[in-house]
Amino acid sequence: MPDSRQEEEFLLIKKKSRLRQEIEELLQKRGLVWEERVAVINLESRECHYFPDYPEAMRFLRGKNGRWYIATPGLRRLEGGGLERDDMHH
């Protein structure tokens, strides 16, 4: 017989998963996606590399010259995706 705590935990995870999916679909309709990787961008050449975590990005930067920007995970606009002016208020 399943433990009631395990069952509650399963339902909570399922609910969070469904909610997360709804949010991601809404963001995608607006031309945005959740970027889970750390991006490292050279500000002069626009060269861009992606890493699963911050320490790996820092190892990559060791010994590099130039101006580099580290973008932590967050929202990213899809190419070609944009918000219409009126959509920004809905």
In short:
With 90 residues, this protein is of the alpha+beta class. It is 38% helix and 23% strand.
Offer a few descriptive terms:
90 residues; alpha+beta; three-stranded antiparallel beta sheet; two-stranded antiparallel ribbon; 2 helices; 5 strands; 38% helix; disordered C terminus
Overall 3D form? elongated
Please tell me the overall pLDDT: 78
For the CA atoms, what is the radius of gyration? 19 Å
Give the terminus-to-terminus CA distance: 47 Å
Structural class: alpha+beta
Largest sheet: 3 strands, antiparallel
Order of helices and strands: HEEEHEE
Can you walk through the features of this model?
With 90 residues, the chain is of the alpha+beta class. 38% of the residues lie in helices and 23% in strands. The chain has two helices and five strands. Strands 3-2-4 form a three-stranded antiparallel beta sheet. A two-stranded antiparallel ribbon has the order 1-5. It starts with a helix and ends in a 13-residue tail after the last strand.
